[in-house]
Backbone:
């Protein structure tokens, strides 16, 4: 049996999101989508040939060529419209992210784990923020008001915790803004369609 330590984390395997395919308009067209291999800064291109209810994926990478037909499905959204999904070619379950190496599969089939080492700074901060709110006897809503100090806690300690909370919440907010800025200014996937010129990134 594989030990937990030897399992790869999700960040280590190149991944393709269904939103990338939809935004590039490739569910029913031919084109390419860049995916990123974390750590190396290396950009990998995924060629996609969309046929409406399935797409064909082709990747030429260091490990060789990967070619796979992926079925698509959709579910209705709360406010009308539909949301598209991949069907994992191994377990046939709906998934929003496919992991690509020699084979293509969902996170479960790849047996990938989310290591706390790779946990997003945002998640860590949010957990800490909620911890502080619990300690002060307040509800977990980080934008809500604080309750008065709980029985047994000095006002001094209570104020110090709130001060720590405010500082961390500022950091958390900045951290939340980062990916949004990146998303807004990053070259969009459709820029990589075959024949299109690759725009220069402002980053
Ligand atoms: Zn699967």
Residues:
């Amino acid at each position: 049996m594989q030990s937990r330590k030897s399992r790869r984390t999700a960040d280590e395997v190149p991944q393709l999101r269904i939103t990338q395919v939809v935004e590039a308009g490739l569910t029913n067209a031919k084109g390419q989508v860049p995916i990123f291999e974390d750590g190396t800064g290396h950009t990998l291109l995924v060629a996609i040939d969309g046929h409406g209810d399935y797409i064909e994926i082709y990747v030429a990478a260091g490990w060789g060529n990967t070619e796979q037909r992926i079925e698509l499905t959709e579910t209705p959204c709360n406010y009308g419209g539909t949301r598209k999904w991949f069907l994992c070619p191994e377990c046939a379950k709906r998934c929003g992210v496919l992991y690509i190496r020699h084979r293509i599969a969902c996170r479960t089939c790849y047996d990938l784990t989310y290591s706390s080492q790779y946990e997003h700074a945002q998640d860590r901060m949010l957990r800490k923020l909620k911890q502080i709110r619990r300690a002060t006897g307040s509800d977990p809503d980080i934008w809500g008001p604080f309750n008065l100090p709980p029985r047994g806690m000095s006002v001094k300690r209570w104020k110090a915790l709130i001060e720590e909370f405010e500082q961390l919440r500022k950091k958390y907010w900045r951290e939340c803004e980062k990916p949004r800025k990146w998303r807004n200014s990053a070259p969009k996937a459709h820029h990589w369609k075959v024949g299109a010129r690759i725009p220069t990134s402002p980053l």
